[in-house]
Amino acid sequence: VIVHDVNELTEKLFPIVKAMQKHFSAGSGTYYSDSIFFLSVAMHRIMPKEITQIIQVDLDLKYKTNIRDLFDEFDNFPEGAVIGIAREMQPVYRHTFWQYRRENPQTKVGDPPPDGLPGFNSGVLLLNLEAMRQSKLYNQLLEPAMVQKLTEKYHFKGHLGDQDFFTMVGMEHPELFHVLDCTWNRQLCTWWKDHGYSDVFDQYFQCEGEVKIYHGNCNTPIPED
């Protein structure tokens, strides 16, 4: 077990993610402490080179299977993919991309699965650090000018940290991501059902199959065994 000091990590992270914080943070400015919410985005830059793969998970999870099986998902990454991540299961990005969707009525951005692009949820992440280090495209997308360009294109203003970054990048470069089955990150939050999207909510929220990991996001109770 190796323990990493959160202050040291934040110190290394801040210069890398400072530019994106203003686009994907809840606060109005760029807060030093907020950098930790972007840890996954630049993990390949701050972890020792000998660490080649990492699973990063939220704390509000309940495991129904061996996490070793999740690690095997790294073997399913298509060529060029650097991150494994499940889709977002609420219409949050239908909401966030409202202006882009209005200007581009034929877009799949923000639409529900299986044909739409609902965005990602970062509660369960597979980070192929070696692939992230090697990917010229991924590292270009971390540059402030590229972040600015994409946020302007999609009129994007988020508040969910790394999840927002991955979602926006995924709209432009889906080839960077291996999409995990919803059963690996079965989100339970239903906030958006009661906030204007009850008519389409179930299209995002449905998940077939035996759940492997429950995610009690937005403080939602997780079912007992």
From TrEMBL:
Lineage of origin: Eukaryota, Metazoa, Chordata, Craniata, Vertebrata
InterPro entries in alphabetical order: Glyco_trans_8, Nucleotide-diphossugar_trans, XXLT1
Keyword Transferase among record annotations: yes
Protein's GO biological process: protein O-linked glycosylation via N-acetyl-galactosamine
Gene3D superfamilies: Spore Coat Polysaccharide Biosynthesis Protein SpsA, Chain A
Record's keyword terms, sorted: Transferase
GO CC terms: endoplasmic reticulum membrane
Species, as recorded: Grus americana
SUPFAM superfamilies, per database record: Nucleotide-diphospho-sugar transferases
This protein's record includes keyword Transferase: yes
Protein name, per record: XXLT1 xylosyltransferase
GO molecular function: xylosyl alpha-1,3-xylosyltransferase activity
A UniProt-annotated Pfam family: Glyco_transf_8
